[in-house]
Prior knowledge:
The protein is α/β, with parallel strands linked by helices. The chain has helices spanning 11-16, 56-59, 68-71, 74-77, 99-103, 123-132, 147-154, 193-203, 207-231, 243-255, 275-297, 368-380, 384-391, and strands at 34-38, 44-50, 60-61, 90-91, 107-114, 181-183, 259-266, 304-310, 330-335, 344-345, 366-367. This is DUF1501 domain-containing protein.
Amino acid sequence: MTHKPARPISRRLFLRSASLIGCSAAAWPLLSPVTFASAPGDERLVVIILRGAMDGLDVVRPIGDPDYATYRKPSLTDGKTGPALNDFYALHPAMSDLMPLWTAGELGFAHAVATPYRDKRSHFDGQDILEAGTGLDVLEPQVRDGWLNRMLQAVPDLKSDTAYAVGRDEMKVIEGPAPSMSWAPKTRLRISDQSQRLLERVYEEDPLFHAAAQEALEISARLEAEKTAEKNGMARLPKIKGQGAELAAFAAARLREDTRIATFSIGGWDTHRNQRNVLAGRLSDLSGAILALKSGLGRDWSKTTVLAMTEFGRTARENGTAGSDHGTGGALIMAGGAIRGGQVYGKWPGLADHALFEQRDLMPTADVRAYAAWAMRGMFGFEKSLLETTVFPRLDMGDDPRIIA
């Protein structure tokens, strides 16, 4: 193993050279990285970046809003509401495996959230602002490091870790002066993200070949997840689905040791067409990752907060290709034994035409950065002024939603 860091891949450069898969390039990076940092204390924070703009309206379904059924036709929902979270919200059926966490208070959501990014709805710009954690235009050079790294710079007695050689996509959320380390999975058994996306596109219209291709992808992902688990001395993981579980299993092994901060990305959330099938696969992958973290962390799960964040939401209305387009307000997914789960946080703005942002998107009623900031305050005891000026410049955290137990 060499310890020379691999040269990062520019997402913008990759987009310009990948016209075959269009705007999905931002949602499906060549390699999905996982990044770690050591910090004092027992609290553990895992940030998962969901690249491609997850449709929060489909994940946490506001079935109690009378306008929801008008915008979301059966081609998106298949007429199924999913397990009830409360009298107003239902969970996407593909995340049913996580309902025991919801019941135990270890799974929660915040709805109608967004970064300050508006109007242009570019994957790359949206991801840059999400990971930089600022309200600044992405072309301005004032803040170039990520909000997790700025948090690490504020932690006293931060210690460095040994670096791994990595071939990776950029994870700007952790980049900056504070020491961290990176790792990316080997590709010997796994199908690359780009190849998976191409397979899905080629066979999505053919039920027989689509089913066979999906089965092959799931088998490949499960073999790799089990191999990683066994390599790290872990028991075989229950109900593990998808590539996210591989990253999560490795992350859990490190978090049981000195690592306290971990972040990785799961791509493929760009659902312009065939959303019902594509989103179900992505949510199954994410559920597998969360279950892998819980299983791998064991007793340390009780001190863990998981935040799964996306660059923006999607349109309220279904489009003409059984999908949804780039939007604004979306949903934040929270998990872990350290959170006050069993709740959907946030103020619901409604889906009436006059309540939508630009008459097309779910109106944001809260800044997603505020939830991350309050989680960091609850876990690490940071001063509110530090979070609003240094970690998240120009942020108004507002009232404490009390998401940390």
